[in-house]
Design brief:
Helix content of chain A: over 70%
Order of helices and strands of chain A: HHHH
Strand content of chain A: under 5%
Number of helices of chain A: 4
Radius of gyration of chain A: 32 Å
Distance between the termini of chain B: 39 Å
Structural class of chain B: mainly alpha
Radius of gyration of chain B: 18 Å
Distance between the termini of chain A: 61 Å
Largest sheet of chain A: none
Oligomer: heterodimer
Mean pLDDT of chain B: 82
Low-confidence stretches of chain B: 95-106
Number of helices of chain B: 8
Low-confidence stretches of chain A: 115-120
Shape of chain A: rod-shaped
Order of helices and strands of chain B: HHHHHHHH
Largest sheet of chain B: none
Shape of chain B: globular
Chain lengths: 120, 183
């Protein structure tokens, strides 16, 4: 009849006859790359949110400035700017900013890291 | 690894610092791999679960309470990921793995390697026959040296329940061991 202490020892021996599996250096290196890539993706995701927020704020501001200048003379941004900075070319500046905004925004969206392809 | 040293690596690890990732992977990958294989995972699935474990650890590091050992916390994440894996794979019953490099033994002759593999398969087969909850406590207790309290914390069960599962597992293993194992 087996004694409890003897049983415990034999069970431990039995379990320990299953040796550890040792990952190779290549497997470890692969895991390091996979983890780094995923951490980087997480960071890119956060950057992406910030970029979109920036674009969401930047575009309406440009549009409001440009449209209010042309369509609602009472609150014309151009008029306000003319009061603060009395130059003749304020309207041209606003138009220029608007056009530049229209050109830059798609570019900004294009250069976002998340739109560069790769593993997503 | 000393706790202070580990904390430094963890902070850098969260930012994806190459050296810290490499050090933590080097330190914990083998233990997590063996834990998952003994829990019956296929090696390829184990790799995915380990990757997920490290990523979750990096993202949730701010929630890590330093009163626990990092190892315990990491195993807890790994165990949760494993549970998700079981849910997904509940319909398939896979054979134990038969790959990987077994730890170097005293004599590495092809014959000894074969014997070791056979033994490993037999133990794995016995472990596979235990209910998952019992298998989990056996693996954590015997192969990874966690205390009853640590296991209780890890599996979110009272210590008494863990002890009871461990006793159940021991009794189950007794029935699964052959004559030769008792000699």
């Amino acid at each position: 009849m087996n004694e409890p202490g003897h049983e415990e020892t034999k069970i431990t021996e039995f379990l320990m006859s299953y040796p550890d599996t040792i990952p190779s250096p290549q497997e470890k290196a692969r895991m390091v790359r996979r983890v780094e890539r995923e951490i980087e993706k997480g960071r890119v995701g956060r950057m992406n949110t910030m970029d979109i927020l920036f674009a969401l704020l930047f575009v309406p501001v440009l549009l409001v400035l440009a449209i209010s200048n042309g369509m609602v003379p009472g609150i014309s941004a151009g008029y306000i700017l003319n009061q603060v900075y009395p130059t003749e070319s304020t309207h041209d500046i606003l138009l220029y900013v608007f056009i530049v905004g229209l050109l830059i925004t798609p570019l900004l969206l294009t250069i976002l890291p998340v739109n560069k392809g790769g593993n997503k | 690894m000393q706790p202070d040293e580990e904390l430094q690596y963890l902070q850098a690890f969260q930012k994806g610092d190459h050296r810290s990732v490499a050090i933590l992977v080097d330190e914990y990958y083998p233990a997590l791999l063996n834990f998952l294989l003994r829990m019956g995972c296929q090696p390829s699935d184990a790799e995915d679960i380990i990757q997920e474990t490290f990523i979750k650890a990096a993202r949730g590091l701010s929630r890590y309470q330093h009163k626990d050992r990092f190892r315990t916390w990491l195993f807890k994440i790994c165990h949760n990921s494993l549970r998700d894996y079981y849910k997904k794979a509940s319909r398939r019953r896979e054979l134990p793995h038969d790959s990987g490099t077994m730890a170097a033994s005293e004599a590495n002759s092809p014959e000894n390697i074969m014997i070791e593999k056979e033994r490993a398969l037999r133990v794995q087969a016995a472990l596979n026959q235990l209910p998952p909850k019992q298998r989990l406590v056996v693996v954590l207790r015997y192969y990874h040296g966690f205390s009853i309290n640590e296991i209780a914390h890890l599996v979110r069960s009272p210590a008494g329940t863990v002890k009871s599962r461990l006793n159940g597992a021991i009794n189950g293993l007794k029935g699964l061991m052959t004559e030769g194992d008792w000699e």
